[in-house]
What does this fold into?
Amino acid sequence: MNNLWMNLGCMIKKFVLSLLCTLVLGIGLVHLVWAAEPPESTTAVMAEGVVRKLDVNNRKLTIKHGPIANLNMSGMTMSFKAKAGVVLDDIKEGDAIVFSAVEENDQYVVTQLRKKQ
Ligand SMILES: [Cu+2]
It folds into this structure.
C-alpha cells in the first residue's frame, strides 16, 4: 500500500514536470517564431520620389516617384494619402524624398517618409 502511494506521488511529479517542460518549450517556440518575423518597417520597400503637391491638412501628397517594387509600379506622378504617424511638417513641395507605400482599401498610402539627404 505504501509503495502504491509513493508510486502515485512520483507519477504526479513526473506529470507536473513534463507539463512544465511542455509549457517552457512552447513559450520558447513562440518567441522563436516571433523573432524570425521581421517588423513591418524593415519589410517595406523604399522608393524615391519628389514631392509635387502637398496638402498637410488633408494629409494628401502628390509624388513623382520612381519604381515601387511592392506595388509593382514603374515611375509616375500620382497622389498618396499619408498614414497616421507619418510626419509631413518638415517636407515641402519640390523636396526629394525616400518613402514606402502600400495599397490599403483601394488607396495608396505612404507609410514611411523622409527627406533624401
Ligand atoms: Cu504610382
Notes: The chain is about 35% helix and 35% strand. The pocket of copper (II) ion is lined by residues 65, 73, 76, 78 (CB under 6 Å).
